[in-house]
Amino acid sequence: MSKLGNRAEHWDHVAREWVQKGYSNELLAEHWKKVHLGLISRWADIPGARRILKTDLFAEAFRLQQFLFDIAQANGKIVGIDVSNEIVALAKKSAAFYGSDAGKYLCCDVRQLPLQDNSIDLIISESTLDHLSSEADIIAALKELGRVLRVGGTLILTMDNKSNFTYPPYFVVRLWMQLGLTPYFIGRTLSLKKLTHNLEKIGFDVAESTAIFHYPHPDGLIRLLERSLRKLSRGKLDNAIRRGLALLDRLEVKRTRYLTGRYIAVKAVKRQANQC
Fold first, then answer.
1. How far apart are CA 59 and CA 226, in angstroms?
2. Distance between CA atoms of 26 and 238, rounded to whole angstroms?
3. In a domain, 276, yes or no
4. Is the pLDDT score of 3 beyond 60?
5. pLDDT at position 181, please?
6. Residue 39's domain is classified under what CATH number?
7. 62 occurs within a structural domain
8. Which residues are registered as beta bridge partners of 158?
9. Burial of 37 (0-12, 13-18, 19+ CB in 10 A)
10. ∠ CA(184), CA(189), CA(194), 5° rounding?
């Protein structure tokens, strides 16, 4: 089976398992949505974009972390893609629930987009490329995003932050996956320096960068802690948890933000026709 087929099959399986097991962290999901909407509102002109691309639909499929349907209230000209047919189907059901148009939700790989050159004004890539298996795959995806983005268009991209002081060596990540401690494949990522370098080579100017979500790895431990606190307190600590997450967000303005943020985030503007 091809690498693309393996990847699609994996995410189909993840989607089915997610539905069966009912993974749920409502407060972390609420925080995820709030931070992304804040970042996008700072860095992009949503109403002014003629066409928007979002590079995966996992959050939309399971609703809690979604922010695309909120964006669609300001601009419904959205293309959504995902490598998994299962996730696309679930995202379309969620869109119907929110009264959002899912007519342009497509099943495809981010490295092989069925879109014309220079046809997108704004790309939102939310922790998509860090689920690819190699740096070469990440760079191929960046080139493909550059191909479909128009000159002057904006790419907002987030990826796992290798500089976070709790980010584990990749052999530890592989061990987590082998032991079943993570429900999905965790791929490679790029440092901010390497990401910036590759974006500039492809034909982007990196206009802004930051680090978001200032709480430590591993993800499973944070999720377990949130669920345990909510269960033991019967929801009485919910507002305290929200305040704690908001307090941690203040680390974004510190010089040490790249040591504490779980994800790097960049705003890159395409400066010339992409040469792929």
1. 19
2. 10
3. no
4. no
5. 86
6. 3.40.50.150
7. yes
8. 126, 265
9. middle
10. 170
Q: How far apart are CA 173 and CA 28, in angstroms?
A: 21
| Under 8 Å between Cβ of 54 and 81 | yes
- CB count, 10 Å around CB of 93? 12
Distance between CA 196 and CA 173 in Å, rounded? 24
Beta strands in the chain (DSSP E): 52-54, 78-82, 105-107, 120-126, 149-160, 204-212, 263-270
Look up the domain containing 225 and give its range: 3-270
- What separation in angstroms does the CA of 243 have from each of 11, 31, 212, 231? 33, 10, 16, 18
Angle at 19 between CA 188 and CA 171, to 5 degrees: 25
| Helix, strand or coil, per DSSP, at residue 2 | coil
Dihedrals φ, ψ of 131, to 5°? -110, 10
pLDDT of residue 272: 74
With 0.85 as the threshold, say if the pTM is over it: yes
Radius of gyration of the chain (CA): 18
Q: Using the predicted structure, report yes or no on whether residue 20 has a pLDDT greater than 90.
A: no
Considering only the C-alpha atoms of the chain, give the largest distance between any 2 of them, rounded to a whole number of Å: 56
C-alpha dist (Å) from residue 154 to 11, 87, 100, 206: 27, 26, 23, 10
Chain center to CA of 172: 22
| Separation CA 120–CA 150 (nearest Å) | 6
Average pLDDT over residues 183-197: 97
* CA atoms of 128 and 231, how far apart (whole Å): 31
What does the pLDDT read at residue 22? 72
Q: Is residue 76 part of a domain?
A: yes
Per the prediction, the chain carries an average pLDDT of: 94
pLDDT confidence of residue 1: 34
Number of domains in the chain: 1
96 occurs within a structural domain:
yes
